[in-house]
Design a protein that fits this description.
5-stranded parallel sheet; single chain; 3-stranded antiparallel sheet; 5 helices
Length: 186
């Protein structure tokens, strides 16, 4: 993004690092409100990115960055020769799991259904990788660990029969989707 910003600036674009509060698209020029300031523009490019969806567990928040992550490319190298879980069943989960095999000794995908929604090619990559296992019909109920004492060390999982197990792991990666950071446009 830094390269994109610099290129735009070479062509005369002004850039500001501020949080937008409101955008009025009802008439031109468009009106962008940032605190007490108002900017006018004939065009707007919305490039706000997205935030990872989380499970909503208290332990997830407590252990984020201490064994729990939502970005394999950001944090995968911290799990060299470790056993990690990937939660999800779409293309993102398949991609995260496959990427993590570069570092982790074992990757287990935890999926709440009995089949993936991921594309066939992404599924094939996972099924063909000997470092990846799948726990079908399971969901994460909780995460056990202490940020001050080694971080995550177990996930509590529930299967479709309602049985729970404490599953030993060194890391857990959430790959259950993203929400666009565009709520201010509502």
């Amino acid at each position: 993004m830094d390269l994109f910003r610099k290129q735009a600036q070479r062509f005369g674009a002004e850039t500001f690092f501020k949080n937008v509060d409101n955008v009025d698209l009802s008439q031109r020029p468009f009106k962008i409100t940032v605190g007490n300031e108002t900017y006018l523009s004939d065009s707007i490019i919305v490039a706000t990115g997205a935030s990872a969806k989380l499970l909503g567990l208290e332990s997830e928040t407590k252990l984020m960055g201490h064994g729990v992550s939502a970005c394999a490319t950001c944090d995968g190298f911290f799990f060299r020769d470790k056993h990690v879980l990937v939660v999800g069943g779409g293309d993102s989960a398949m991609e995260e799991a496959t990427f993590l095999t570069k570092f982790a000794s074992k990757v287990t995908i935890v999926h709440r259904r009995d089949e993936f929604r991921a594309s066939k090619i992404m599924q094939k990559r996972v099924f063909d990788n000997s470092k990846i296992d799948v726990l079908w019909n399971h969901q994460v109920l909780d995460m056990i660990g202490d940020p001050k004492d080694g971080g995550l060390h177990q996930a509590i999982l529930k299967n479709s029969n309602g049985e729970t197990i404490n599953y030993d792991c060194d890391g857990l990666f959430l790959a259950i989707g993203h929400d666009p950071n565009s709520k201010f446009l509502n």
